[in-house]
User: What shape does this take?
Amino acid sequence: MIDITLQKSLKSQDGTMILDLSFQVESGSFNALFGPSGAGKTSTLKMISGLLRPDTGSIQSHGDIWFDSQKKINLAPGKRKIAYVFQDAALFPNMSVLENIQYAAGSDPDRAYLENLISSMGLEKLVNHKPDMLSGGQAKRVALARALAQKPDLLLLDEPFTALDQSAKIKLQQHLSGLHQDYGFTVILVSHDHAEVMQLATKAFIIEAGQLLRSGTPAEVFGLEGASDEITVMAQIIDHDAESITVMHQGRTYRLSWDASHQPTIGSWINIRLKTTDAQINSLGKL
Amino acid sequence: MLSLSSVNWDPLFLTFKLALVTTLVLLLVGIPLGYWLAYSRSRLKPLLAVLVSMPLVLPPTVIGFYLLLAFSPNNAFGAWLEQTFDLRLVFSFTGLVIASVIYGIPFMVHPIQSGLRGLPPAYKESAQLMGRSRFSILTRVLLPNMKPALLSGIVLSFAHTLGEFGVVLMIGGSIPGETRVASIAIYDEVERLNFGQAHLLSLILFAIAFVILLWVYTRGSKNWKGVVG
Assistant: This one.
């Protein structure tokens, strides 16, 4: 279990924002910090890693104190058993893929583990390549492999799937899921993509303007349980005949069947309730 | 008739020896100093930044004058050096090196500092998270990824030391084989109306400086331009 309580005054273009968060992360779980840009997600990740110092608060991992403002404890980033995948991979350009991974593994690397990591991520053919020869997806995969070469207890991922095309994104997500299951490290993923969080995380924390709004399973926090199977749209009647009316909604016209016993009023507004399961709309094109 | 055989090469050799030693010392001093200026959040940082930049604006004679006072055996520091280490820095090659290092410091520190600042912060941060020492991060991650800046610092420091005159004259004088570098030798030859020798030395120095700067302009990095204006 990792207990995190953080307070920090953050300066942004819109002025000062007070980040004030308190949450717990279970060992071996896959967590997501979800929220809009500028909510304080990356700053939270940096504070957990030790790269950014909180004003006050504490971080404890399995009883070890990483940070405690009252006790004046602030463990160096390298002593927290954390690996971090940055948004832009941040591979060292002077080193090959293999050298990047070896450098991360430290002076006494577990060779069998590294070889397994490289082959399970399909990097064998890339080991001698320099980072500038890699595609965006390959670079992110190497960054993930490099992070895991550290054998971290906690893996921090800062929007690792941005700027990737769909196929590279799916491939990286599959690798991440598989490795998480195999090695059982704890993950905190920063994301602003609903689908990504739904697919990967077991717990999501919704953060807005530096505050934790709610937390729970992704289905709970995104309100999936209470999802409606109806859509209501508002439209204006612009024409009718004996059996149907023509309405306009957001610049497009639609024909709907109409109960002839009621006389429709042209120009009036109506609510149209549609079942998401069987909705059929006949679009007449844009006016 | 002037010919290369009539050139007194000693001042030229001494100049290159001085430039080489100065550049090496500047590298050793400039890297930690540039690192500190690039990353420190200390309140003393502006003070040190100003001190490092002072040789860019002060006349060389001012620096030379104060160093002359400091190194003089008649003053406390110079006397202490002489009594403790049997070291006399005025009118000696060692003194010349120290003066050249002080005078050349911005030419090494500024490219290194801007080279480090130009690297994505995530390089240093990832290496920190890997638990690597500062020395390892500096030598294996940061410096190899800013080679052009490092090279600019080396070339500028070397070339700048070649052309030194004021500082050298103030604390080195003109002792053949010890402190009589090319710029001083040229001045002496002109004083003696020996224009032929002055011409030869000047031409050689001109050619070398030209080649070095041409190399920097064609192969060097963008980092150095900000330093020389």
About this structure: The longest helix of chain B spans residues 10-39. Chain B has one domain: 4-228. Residues 56 and 106 of chain B are 7 Å apart (CA to CA). The radius of gyration of chain B is 20 Å.
